[in-house]
Write a structure and sequence with these properties.
This protein is 67% helix and 14% strand. By secondary structure, the protein is α+β, with helices and mostly antiparallel strands.
Length: 263
């Protein structure tokens, strides 16, 4: 009988302990859950702020790149056309009607070329409208400006659907990534040929840029945080959940592949 009473007491004590401990454990668990949740929300907020900040920075850089392109074309192309028009008109001898007529025709043609170039520059100023027509169209315009330099042999293929659903914020970052990669080629690659392809791969946008320049050792360059701007490119690709692949060898050129979830 005494043994039975002892067992009852033990059971009561255990039940009391469980009754007291379970709420304690629940309170600790709820507290930890709330701390983790608050931390997650804070991280999410910081990521959103970082994205907004990077987006604004990208927008400014795209505008700066646009201004540089416009300034370069005004100086190198339109300025040259207008100077040539001026020289042609100044050399006209009114007494020689046949030659004068030919020179006036040439001048008219040069003026028309200048007007056409100015219209193209006006389109470039409306960068947002270019993106409204889709990322494929915007990148195609960038390639057209690159072709105007006549420095490179360019092979460009665009396999993107004409009515591909747009993703405005991603498009802006993708446009800037493309500009950065092309600028790197111009500054460092010493290439003569550039191959660019745009394609859709399941739910991804695939951009491949290959050139036949001097190449580099990716491992050595990537150790330098600012090396060839690769760190910035990689950071921005991660910002839009993409991947960035570089294949390069000294003397054998470089291939850069961007794989970005889209839209």
């Amino acid at each position: 009988m005494q043994e039975s009473t002892t067992q009852i007491y033990i059971l009561i004590i255990l039940a009391t302990l469980i009754f007291l401990l379970v709420p304690g454990f629940l309170l600790v668990y709820i507290r930890q859950y709330n701390v983790r949740k608050a931390k997650h929300l804070q991280e999410k907020k910081l990521m959103a702020q970082q994205f907004e900040s990077e987006l604004l920075k990208t927008q400014i850089e795209v505008q700066e790149q646009t201004m540089q392109t416009i300034a370069s074309n005004l100086h190198d192309n339109i300025g040259q056309l207008l100077s040539l028009t001026n020289l042609t008109l100044a050399s006209i001898n009114i007494d020689d009607r046949e030659k004068a007529s030919k020179k006036i025709d040439n001048s008219t043609e040069l003026v028309n070329k200048s007007i056409k170039e100015l219209r193209e520059l006006a389109k470039l100023l409306q960068g947002e409208k270019l993106l409204e027509k889709g990322i494929g169209h915007a990148l195609e315009q960038e390639v057209d400006w690159l072709k105007k330099s006549e420095v490179y042999q360019i092979n460009f293929t665009n396999h993107l659907e004409e009515h591909l659903e747009a993703s405005p914020e991603k498009d802006l970052i993708i446009l800037r990534l493309f500009q950065e990669i092309v600028n790197n080629i111009i500054k460092h690659a010493q290439a003569t040929e550039i191959i660019i392809s745009l394609a859709q791969q399941q739910e991804n946008l695939l951009i491949v840029i290959k050139e036949n320049g001097i190449g580099f050792n990716y491992q050595d360059v990537s150790k330098n945080s600012g090396g060839l701007g690769l760190h910035t490119i990689e950071k921005r690709v991660k910002l839009i959940d993409g991947t960035f692949q570089v294949a390069s060898a000294i003397g054998k050129g470089t291939q850069i592949t961007l794989i970005i979830p889209y839209p």
